[in-house]
Amino acid sequence: MKKYIKDLKVAEVEYPHARYVLLKLTADEPLPEMMPGQFVEVKVENSPSTFLRRPISINYVDRGNNQLWLLVQTVGEGTKALARLQEGDILNVVFPLGNGFSPVRSEGEQVLLVGGGVGVAPLLMYGEYLKEHGAKPVFLLGARSKADLLELDLFRQIGDVYITTEDASEGEKGFVTQHSVLNREHFDRISTCGPKPMMMAVAKFAKANGIPCEVSLENMMACGLGACLCCVEKTVKGNVCVCKEGPVFNIEELTWQI
Fold this sequence. Notes:
Elements: E1 4-17, E2 20-26, E3 39-42, E4 54-57, E5 60-62, E6 67-73, H1 77-83, E7 90-97, E8 110-116, H2 121-132, E9 136-143, H3 152-156, E10 160-165, E11 172-173, H4 181-184, E12 189-193, H5 196-208, E13 213-216, E14 232-235, E15 238-241, H6 242-245, E16 248-250
Parallel strand pairs: 8-9, 8-12, 9-10, 10-11, 12-13
Antiparallel strand pairs: 1-2, 1-7, 2-6, 3-4, 3-7, 5-6, 13-16, 14-15
C-alpha cells in the first residue's frame, strides 16, 4: 500500500477524558485508503525535547467528512504537545503504515474484539469493517473505572459491548479474561489491542480454547519504516520490526509463553 507524507489540518479537537485527546484531521483532497489496524507517524512541533515522530493507531476514518481520527493518550511531552493542538493547526503525518487486522474470513463469523486503555482505538474502525463485510463484531472492553472507558457510544452503534472495570463501577468487576461472556458465547476468532499483560492473558485464553487470535503490538516505533530497529520483536522466524511486519501478529508467530 502506498505511503504518504502530508500536512493534515486539524478539523476538530475533542477531550473524551482528562488524559486523552481525539484529533480529527482532514485534507483538501480525499484521504488515501487505510486499513483497520494500521498506524501513522506524526511530527511533533513546539516540543523541544521531542525529536522523533510519534506512532499513533488509526482510530477511525470518517469518509463522509474526509477525516482521519487519532485517539491520543497524553503520557509524555510529545503527546502533551499534540493535546495542545487547536482547530486549524497543521500536523505532518506519515501514513498509512504497517499491516492491519485480518479480513473477514466467512460471512456471519463472530469476532471478539478485546481492548484495554488506549488499545481500544484501532478496534473501532475494525469493528465497523467487520460489520460492513458480513461478520458480527463483539466488543469486550476493560478499564480501571467507568471514567476510563472511551468511545462507548460509537462501539455500541457497531455491535454488542461487554465491559469489565477493576473497581466494578461499570460492567463486571475484574479483568477482560474474567468476563462471563467468554463462557457463554462462541467466537470464531479474537483480535486484541492494549497493555501487553492483557494481550498475553487474552492470547492464553484463546490458545487454551482453540480460537485463532491476533494481537496488535505497541512497541516503540520511531521511524515506522523498519529502518531504526527500535521496535524489534522476537518471533518464531527470528527478530522482526513491528512497524513493518506488524503491528498485528497472529499469536502463533510470537514466542510468548502462553
